[in-house]
């Protein structure tokens, strides 16, 4: 019998590739789980709008759970959510953040009676990016660290040209593989798992606390 799992969803390339790899391995993804800031409007990880998360989930044809929390309640709220899913027959979790604390994930899943799966574990960031692109997913850059990548990178598509340009930036600014985490974040708009490709119809570029953001205001 196929294992029923919930997949953590940030809206970016890592969570999307993890979802694809989980399904490739035979897991049945029953829900996507998206963590929102206490305002209930933006995601904790990439600062993307809750509306965009819902549009992605709808395009993927998967139910979306949006867990509203804060730094103080995060672990308790996360455990409560997993426990509720366990009562619905979900017995595993898929997590896409390559930098996630494996020990913590294993612990909270074990307490809920679930197994933890990190499909990207052991993969380099380069391999993740190339695998994502090679599968035909469509994604764009939505956040950049301002001292590394200018606002011109916002909205740029992840493709072969992006790979070359990003390699040039790393060389020019002498960015090590270990230090590149957080230099940019992405959001996925379409690809093999999607029933439709999302189109951005309204957005705004914002500079805040050393980061450029592409605030996506409306998609269809």
TrEMBL record:
Domain Diphthamide synthase residues, every copy: 4-218
Pfam families: Diphthami_syn_2
An example molecular function term from Gene Ontology annotations: diphthine-ammonia ligase activity
Species the sequence originates in: Dehalogenimonas formicexedens
SUPFAM superfamilies hit by this protein: Adenine nucleotide alpha hydrolases-like
Gene Ontology BP annotations: protein histidyl modification to diphthamide
InterPro entries linked to this entry: Diphthami_syn_dom, DPH6/MJ0570, Rossmann-like_a/b/a_fold
Listed name of the protein: Diphthamide synthase domain-containing protein
Residues making up the signal peptide according to the UniProt record: none
């Amino acid at each position: 019998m196929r294992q029923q799992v919930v997949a953590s969803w940030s809206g970016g390339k890592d969570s999307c590739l993890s979802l694809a790899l989980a399904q490739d391995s035979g897991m049945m993804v029953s829900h996507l789980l998206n963590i929102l800031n206490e305002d209930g409007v933006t995601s904790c990880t990439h600062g993307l709008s809750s509306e965009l998360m819902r549009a992605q989930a709808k395009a993927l044809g998967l139910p979306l759970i949006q867990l509203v929390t804060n730094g103080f309640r995060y672990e308790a709220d996360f455990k409560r959510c997993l426990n509720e899913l366990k009562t619905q027959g979900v017995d595993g979790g898929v997590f896409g953040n390559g930098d996630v604390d494996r020990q913590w994930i294993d612990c909270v899943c074990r307490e809920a009676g679930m197994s933890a799966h990190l499909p990207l574990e052991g993969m380099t960031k380069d391999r993740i990016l190339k695998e994502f692109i090679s599968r035909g997913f469509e994604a764009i850059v939505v956040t950049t660290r301002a001292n590394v990548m200018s606002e011109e990178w916002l909205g740029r598509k992840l493709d072969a040209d992006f790979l070359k340009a990003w390699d040039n930036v790393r060389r020019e600014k002498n960015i090590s593989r270990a230090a590149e985490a957080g230099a940019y974040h992405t959001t996925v708009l379409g690809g093999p798992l999607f029933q439709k490709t999302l189109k951005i119809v309204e957005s705004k570029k914002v500079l805040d606390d050393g980061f450029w953001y592409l605030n996506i205001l409306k998609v269809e």
